[in-house]
Specification:
Layout lengths: L1 H31 L11 E3 L6 H5 L12 H13 L3 E7 L6 E6 L2 E8 L6 H7 L10 H17 L6 E9 L3 E9 L5 E8 L6 H7 L19 H17 L6 E10 L4 E9 L5 E9 L23 H17 L5 E10 L4 E10 L4 E8 L6 H5 L12 H13 L3 E10 L5 E10 L3 E10 L3 E13 L4 E10 L2 E10 L7 E12 L8 E16 L2 E15 L15 E2 L2 E2 L6 H6 L23 H9 L2 E13 L10 E15 L3 E13 L5 E12 L30 E2 L13 E12 L9 E13 L38 E2 L6 E12 L2 E12 L9 E8 L1
Parallel strand pairs: 1-3, 4-6, 7-9, 10-12, 13-15
Antiparallel strand pairs: 2-3, 5-6, 8-9, 11-12, 14-15, 16-17, 16-35, 17-18, 18-19, 19-20, 20-21, 21-22, 22-25, 23-24, 25-26, 26-27, 27-28, 28-30, 29-32, 30-31, 31-33, 33-34, 34-35
């Protein structure tokens, strides 16, 4: 028995050993021996309908001996699966053969979107990867659903739900339908700032692009939560602090939280301001032989005692580096250093000029411009292929490209060139729409109701040209205008502008006559510096007066023939005019003042009418200095405009007109902005040509608020006439204003209040005062028809009498409401004149505004 057990145990051990050895041998044979010595040509493909068998076999790469081992078969299997053409791939080896069985993905017949109202099908189709007539990939479909949801979130709809549905069709085809539940718009409900002491939250909301939602948010889009915009706002806040002397500022975080109760986001910017610094000292150093650092001193915008301003520092570095390049030091690099004195709160600035690496630009590659021509982009660079690489010039080019407003984004990066001293500039652009069609409407107390239709294109034909056509039709003003601008005339940075216009001003409550003006004006613009520009212009205009016959007929109602309620034209004899005044009065002066007894227009107006159309051919120029921090809503800076025009190059009009307008903005306290506005002008006679009334300055609320249009200055005060304002040759004006927000209202409402005091004057009329013509008795016995201090005389004293009191200073105080509304800028003013001329006309309330929709 024991023997038998031992025999069985030995037999069992032998069997186990045989099985182990056999299995090992079989495994070794599978790994190391070619699969039945199969080759690619002997692979059997099953289940394929659209994909060719040879195409499937091509994914199996044989070894050097032309045979396929298990590893190569496995690689082919993975490659087939990665193509996305098949739902399933199976490999079997019956009888030593390789059989590849595939289940093909169906073909997409059509792609549809249901439930989408805010985003069009075309936009969604361009964003997804699945395409009609392409193969269906379920992972890709899920990715497309996520992409659609992301598009909606970018537009502010975070409650969006996207459900893909696959509808099977015959012949292994499917329809792909994305069902979209858009959900309500998800906006930013609250924007808060923590850690800010120097600047109020109200002020910082002016700095950032993201706004809080309000009742008028549907007219804009900045209240929509966009994480990229919020991140950009962090940098805007940081730049704002750095500009105002806070060199240690850190915007630690921008925290966003979705509030389901408010159905919107709460955004909080955490700020660590640090302390404010001023410039303690400014020094210049150079390690480049032959380059005197003091030669760059005049290009510094950083001054001792001023607030430490990073923007001024950066502009100084840019201008110094460009100047060094002009002086022949192409590789000079200016490095600013700042040594802080924490106790004195000052920064000592050192501009160090060193020799930079000798690197040249090999190529400038522009990408992303599908419409804009390459040369429109390249001409914004002050360097080209082969020039020395200058980072300051590259930064300037990027800023110029952004200022064109042709692109959503502009980014210039560098890549290594063909050698160590070569770089390639990569200009990545994303274009945006540059055409505008607008229908504008407005109303003001001066011009009445007004409407305008305009079509403009900032990048006409992709060549960087500007073109605009507009038509205006209103209660008292009508016309059209055509404008064209070529910003680079003959490839120079000189802008050529062409303007053609026709305007008609109708008689209204403020003027008894109308005017028709037809004009053409070419102009050249030069950007002398970033803050200084020059414009040269020529203009030729044809202008004429329009006046109803009843205001120009020198007609006496007593002597005129009456038809119904109308009086026929009648030119009385001198004797008749002297003897027949209103109510039978007799004009004993012999002057003929009764010519005005039925309400004729003033003598200068009727003389313009009798002389017919005038042609003015004039040349002029403008100098504009602008350091405003924001052109639309400035809080700091200076804007000065100086203009001169000389008429007399042909035509029948001659004069020299000079005007200056200056506005200074400065922040006061607690978000209050102070504005100082100064203006003045003078009109000079040239040669022996008489000045026209129409050439004179006409002033009203544009000089001193509280007065009517054409309500200030010299006026024909004849008691029987229309008492028209005739204008003056000299004017001056000064205004002090404070604008303050309404802190109890949301910032996004855009309402501000204003209080102001104005002073000014218009005087020295030099137009016609006498006129001798057939059937008009206008030659006075007293040759001096201008009586600066005389009150209206009795009838017969002087025809064409003008009251012109230069001793009177017009002043007023008032309050205003300024609304940066979605309908356009609106302003309401109520002003009370404190001092005025005896015959000035007052208009205490004034309103003006407009919109585009």
């Amino acid at each position: 028995m024991k023997f038998g057990m031992r025999v069985w145990g030995g037999l069992r051990a032998a069997l186990v050993m045989f099985a182990v050895v056999g299995a090992a041998s079989l495994a070794a044979g599978i790994v190391s021996t070619p699969v039945a010595a199969q080759t690619v040509s002997s692979i059997v493909v099953e289940g394929n309908r659209r994909v060719e068998a040879d195409t499937i076999r091509s994914y199996f790469k044989p070894g050097p001996n032309g045979a396929l081992d298990a590893g190569r078969v496995d690689d082919g299997l993975k490659a087939l699966i990665e193509t996305g053409l098949f739902q399933d791939v199976q490999i079997t080896r019956p009888g030593g053969k390789i059989v590849v069985t595939v289940v093909e993905n169906p073909v997409i017949g059509r792609i549809a979107f249901e439930g989408n109202k805010k985003i069009k099908d075309e936009q969604l189709t361009s964003e997804i990867q699945s395409k009609p007539r392409g193969t269906l990939s379920r992972p890709m479909v899920q990715s497309d659903a996520l992409r659609i949801a992301e598009i909606y979130r970018r537009s502010g709809r975070y409650d969006v739900h996207v459900t893909p549905e696959i509808i099977e069709q015959p012949n292994n085809r499917v329809d792909l339908v994305f069902t979209i539940e858009e959900g309500p718009k998800t906006g930013v409900k609250v924007i808060e700032f923590s850690g800010n002491v120097a600047f109020s939250s109200y002020r910082l909301k002016d700095v950032i692009k993201t706004h809080e939602s309000n009742l008028l948010s549907f007219l804009g889009g900045n209240d929509v939560y966009d994480p990229d915009r919020v991140e950009a706002d962090r940098d805007l806040i940081r730049r704002f602090y750095l500009k105002n002397g806070y060199a240690d500022v850190q915007v630690v975080a921008a925290l966003t939280e979705y509030d389901p109760d408010r159905k919107g986001f709460l955004v909080t910017f955490k700020i660590e301001e640090g302390q404010q610094y001023r410039v303690g000292a400014v020094d210049f150093q150079s390690t480049i032989s032959g380059l005197d650092p003091n030669a760059l001193r005049s290009f510094s915008r950083v001054n001792v005692g001023s607030l430490y301003n990073v923007e001024a520092l950066e502009k100084s570095v840019e201008e110094m580096q460009i100047e060094a390049s002009r002086r022949g030091f192409a590789f000079a690099v200016v490095h600013p250093r700042g040594d802080r004195n924490f106790d004195a709160h000052t920064v000592s600035v050192v501009f160090a000029v060193d020799e930079g690496p000798r690197v040249y630009i090999e190529r400038i590659n522009v990408r992303g411009n599908t419409r804009t021509r390459d040369y429109v982009i390249r001409r914004e660079f002050d360097l080209s292929e082969g020039d020395a690489y200058n980072r300051a010039l590259v930064d300037r080019a990027e800023r110029r490209l952004k200022n064109l407003d042709f692109f959503k984004s502009v980014k210039i990066t560098t890549e290594p060139g063909s050698s160590s001293d070569r770089v390639v500039l990569i200009v990545d652009l994303e274009e945006k729409s540059t055409g505008d069609f607008s229908v504008s409407g407005g109303y003001s107390t001066t011009d009445g109701a007004l409407a305008e239709v305009s079509v403009s294109e900032r990048n006409f034909l992709g060549r960087g040209l500007f073109a605009k056509a507009s038509v205006t039709y209103g209660q008292f003003a009508r016309g059209y205008a055509l404008s064209f601008v070529e910003p680079y005339l003959l490839d120079y940075r000189v802008a050529l502008g062409l303007d053609f216009y026709q305007r008609q001003q109708l008689a209204n409550n403020f003027i008894a006559y109308g005017t028709k003006t037809l004009g053409f004006s070419p102009r050249l613009g030069f950007q002398l510096r970033e803050d200084l520009s020059l414009q040269l212009r020529y203009s030729i205009t044809r202008q004429e007066i329009t006046l109803p016959t009843t205001l120009a007929n020198c007609n006496n109602t007593i002597g005129g023939s009456q038809v119904g309620n109308n009086f026929l034209p009648f030119n009385p004899t001198p004797a008749f005019v002297q003897a027949n005044g209103a109510n039978g009065a007799v004009d004993a002066s012999g002057v003929g003042l009764f010519c005005f007894s039925d309400g004729e227009a003033s003598l200068p107006v009727r003389k313009e009418l009798a002389n017919g159309a005038s042609i003015a051919s004039a040349i002029g120029y403008s100098l504009n200095y602008n350091t405003l921090d924001n052109n639309k809503n400035p809080t700091e800076g200076l804007l000065v405009d100086f203009r001169q025009d000389f008429a007399g190059l042909g035509g029948n009009v001659s004069f020299l007109k000079t005007a200056v307008d200056a506005k200074y903005f400065t922040p006061l306290v607690s978000d209050i902005v102070g504005i100082v506005h100064m203006q003045g002008g003078i009109l000079n006679k040239v040669g022996n040509t008489e000045l026209r009334m129409l050439d004179h300055f006409q002033m009203g609320p544009n000089l001193v608020r509280g007065f009517a249009p054409n309500g200030i200055g010299p006026r024909d005060i004849n008691p029987f006439g229309t008492q028209d304002a005739v204008g003056g040759t000299k004017y001056w004006g000064a205004s002090l204003e404070m604008q303050m927000p309404f802190w109890f209202l949301p910032k996004e409402v855009g309402l501000k209040g204003a209080v102001y005091a104005d002073a000014g004057g218009l005087y020295d009329y030099q137009g016609p005062t006498t006129w001798t013509a057939t059937n008009e008795l206008t030659t006075p016995q007293n040759s001096n028809c201008i009586r600066p201090t005389q009150t209206p005389p009795t009838a017969g004293t002087c025809t064409g009498l003008v009251f012109d009191d230069s001793k009177v200073v017009r002043t007023s105080v008032g309050v205003g409401l300024v609304w940066a509304s979605p309908f356009g800028p609106l302003r309401f003013d109520y002003a009370i004149p404190l001092t005025k001329g005896q015959f000035d006309r007052v208009q205490q309330f004034r309103f003006g505004g407009g919109t585009s929709f």
